[in-house]
Write a structure and sequence with these properties.
single chain, mainly beta, four-stranded antiparallel sheet, 4% helix, disordered N terminus, disordered C terminus
Length: 456
């Protein structure tokens, strides 16, 4: 956020930024004496603006994600979905979806074109009973958590059945490698398979590790609330160095482990604030080690560093673009695009990382008002705040970057009258499609808000 105080001859530019949970600010004072020549005044203003730009360039503000596209609708035809669950992306950018109630896996291109499907309802090889998780290894092999059949199935990239493991032998009971109701599933760079499972007092194996052919390699996690314990490991993801991240559904947290199950850390508590969760489910890790969590009960996605520092969030309850109803799965491709299984909307949504705020490139002032230069590629809803505007008439102009394809000066050229006890609200749309500028002024003399947002 950024603010501006100005009078005809004295103005102060103040900025406050929040980066990875740390808030800090800076202030620049510009004093233009009334009795000095205009050329000296201009030089001082330019020097002040230069200092502002130096400060702004050193700031990295909260990252934003913008809606790109969606696909899917309720049904059982090709490309339709019935409560989609887990989601995965291969090295070519193809997207695989566990189409839960349709008992199948569907494959799509990165732009949502239907490519293939396999599976049907049943318990035979290649059939499923409410599959909830899907993962793809570096060779293109596909692993499916066949949840209500209590097993893991492996397929080729074309859907050919290759093998299965994990089914119960009721004459023996639970042994290493047995799965109960597997949900989350992930692979590492060596082809090993990690499975998040139901946890109960009689099933002490919330996360299990297997070779690519189903050989049992290890297990960890018991039912409980302590470090390393779970109340259902709903989601599992593995980063490039082999660290394992698991969503602890009932404890409303994310836990981090080594590839052998050594507890490394945790974050999250119950709630709706930044870094809090209401039943976390799907988990994904990008190439930089950032962790994405489906915060199902809060109908949003949260992004964290590999150590659990909150970075950003997006989403809310609803059915419009960018909203979710009980989302379950998340995946990230090599370009940083994020795919979300928007389960009860029966669709997949794709998001792309936007540019960081602040959008301000330059600010100057005059006796008539304030002029703000903004980056028209700015994405997000982080407000630019102008504070301590004096009472009287001010001229507001919004400019783009010279040389852009769209008109560099936009349809904002308003005389704004600030009066004590009154509220002024002006809303206009840029000539560049997809952008909106909102100027709102509070009824208190000496306060104003300028909101710059991108809507697309």
């Amino acid at each position: 956020m950024a603010g501006l105080l100005f009078s005809p001859y004295l103005f102060r530019i103040t900025m406050q930024f929040s980066n990875k949970g740390i808030t800090w600010g800076a202030a620049v004072y510009c004093n233009v004496m009334k009795d000095k020549a205009n050329i000296k005044n201009s030089v001082k203003i330019v020097l002040c603006i230069f200092l502002l730009l130096v400060i702004v360039q050193g700031v990295k503000a909260a990252e934003t994600y913008q809606f790109v596209m969606k696909w899917g609708s309720n049904g059982s035809l090709n490309g339709q979905l019935y409560l989609p669950q887990g989601i995965a992306v291969d090295t070519s950018g193809n997207v695989y979806v566990a189409d839960g109630f349709n008992a199948r896996i569907q494959k799509f291109s990165s732009d949502g074109r239907f490519l293939a499907k396999f599976g049907s309802n049943g318990s035979l090889n290649g059939q499923f009973y409410y599959p909830e998780g899907v993962a793809v290894d570096s060779s293109g092999n596909i692993y499916v958590s066949d949840t209500d059949n209590g097993r893991i199935q492996k397929f080729s990239s074309t859907g050919t059945f290759l093998g299965k493991w994990g089914s119960w032998d009721y004459s023996v009971g639970w042994v290493n490698g047995t799965v109960d109701m597997p949900v989350g599933i992930a692979t590492d760079t060596f082809g090993n398979v990690y499975v998040g499972d139901n946890c109960a007092l009689y099933l002490p194996k919330c996360v299990q590790k297997f070779s690519s052919t189903g050989i049992f390699l290890g297990k960890w996690g018991a039912f409980g609330t302590g470090d390393g314990d779970f109340q259902v490991a709903m989601g599992v993801a593995v980063d490039r160095t082999g660290n394992v991240y698991a969503s602890d559904y009932g404890n409303h947290r994310i836990q981090k482990f080594s590839s052998t199950g050594i507890f490394l850390g945790k974050w999250g508590t119950y709630g709706s604030g930044d870094g809090q969760f209401n039943c976390p489910v799907g988990v994904a890790v990008d190439a930089s080690g950032n962790v994405y969590v489906v915060d199902m009960g809060n109908n949003r996605i949260q992004k964290f560093s590999s150590t659990g520092t909150f970075l950003t969030k997006w989403g809310s309850y609803g059915s419009v673009d960018g909203q979710f109803i009980r989302p379950l799965g998340v995946a990230v491709d090599s370009s940083g695009n994020v795919y979300v299984s928007d389960t009860e909307n029966n669709r997949i949504q794709k998001f792309a990382p936007g540019q960081n705020a602040p959008a301000i490139l330059m600010v100057d002032s005059s006796p008539q008002g304030v002029r703000v230069y903004i980056d028209t590629q700015y994405r997000g809803d982080t407000p630019i705040i102008l504070t301590d505007l004096s009472a009287g008439i001010h001229q507001l102009k919004i400019f783009g970057i010279p040389g852009e394809t769209c008109n560099p000066e936009y349809a904002i050229n308003e005389n704004v009258v600030l009066e004590a006890g009154k509220t002024v609200s002006i809303s206009r749309t840029y000539k560049c499609p997809g952008f909106e500028v909102i100027f709102a002024v509070s009824g208190i003399i000496g306060a104003g808000l300028l909101f710059i947002k991108r809507r697309k």
